[in-house]
Amino acid sequence: MNRPLRSPSPILAICAAAFMTAASGQSARAQVSTNIEALPEAPPAKKNAASPSTQALHPRHTSSSAAQPDAKSQTKQAPIPAQPHATASQRVGAPPDVPPHPPAPVVIPPPAVAVATHPPVPAAPVTAVATAKNTLTMHPDGLQLTFDPDSADLNPDTLSKLKDIGAEYARNPGLRLTLLAYANGNPDDLSTPRRVALARALAVRSVLINAGVATTRIYPRAIGLPPSSDQAPRDRLDISAQGAVPANANQAQFGVAPQTSTPAPKAAP
């Protein structure tokens, strides 16, 4: 009677698979080939340190000077004597020589090319108007000049007086003249009274310049409409003279106080 074939056991199957894997690995190793010439060269080997036997054959010789202290260090150094202090004249030295005469002043030569100087432009002459109504009032610090409304004209008498006053100011170069010009007008239109005041200031300025007063000493100011609290005439020009006035010889010596005579002493009886 025939028996049916049994399947192999799992253990035998695992052993057979392991044997076949080992056999295939040996055949794969047998096929690997190496080329020794293609490998990089190894670095040179380092020299070995001297062996103890070599060190024993060649011992180091230490100098005897290191073991023995220096003879100079054993001897004490002699103290350095103190140096004497130098006097002030020895430290600074001899004083410089003083020149017998002061140096000559430096003389600046004149320019080689003559520079043309331009004289100041003369002011335009002022023409008198016979119908103009002016009033000229003197006060300690200057004068006050009135005009017609909306006009800067001067009558012949006022123009002649202004020329004489300008000649007097020209003889006192220390004075500075300030011209304050006013003009009446509408408070809603401040430009019109200011233009009228400027025309009055320029007219009086021209008279003073033609009389010999330098332009650098005259300062015109067109104020225009005067303030409401001003009680002076509203159409006017004020000249304010400020500065130093040369004094007379007796005032420069004795002051401005009046001189008093000293009574002569009475004779003894």
UniProtKB/TrEMBL annotation:
<feature type="compositionally biased region" description="Pro residues">
    <location>
        <begin position="96"/>
        <end position="105"/>
    </location>
</feature>
<keyword id="KW-0732">Signal</keyword>
<feature type="compositionally biased region" description="Low complexity">
    <location>
        <begin position="37"/>
        <end position="53"/>
    </location>
</feature>
<feature type="region of interest" description="Disordered">
    <location>
        <begin position="23"/>
        <end position="105"/>
    </location>
</feature>
<feature type="compositionally biased region" description="Polar residues">
    <location>
        <begin position="248"/>
        <end position="263"/>
    </location>
</feature>
<feature type="signal peptide">
    <location>
        <begin position="1"/>
        <end position="30"/>
    </location>
</feature>
<dbReference type="InterPro" id="IPR036737">
    <property type="entry name" value="OmpA-like_sf"/>
</dbReference>
<dbReference type="GO" id="GO:0016020">
    <property type="term" value="C:membrane"/>
</dbReference>
<feature type="region of interest" description="Disordered">
    <location>
        <begin position="223"/>
        <end position="269"/>
    </location>
</feature>
<feature type="compositionally biased region" description="Polar residues">
    <location>
        <begin position="23"/>
        <end position="36"/>
    </location>
</feature>
<dbReference type="InterPro" id="IPR006665">
    <property type="entry name" value="OmpA-like"/>
</dbReference>
<feature type="compositionally biased region" description="Polar residues">
    <location>
        <begin position="62"/>
        <end position="77"/>
    </location>
</feature>
<protein>
    <submittedName>
        <fullName>Uncharacterized protein</fullName>
    </submittedName>
</protein>
<dbReference type="Pfam" id="PF00691">
    <property type="entry name" value="OmpA"/>
</dbReference>
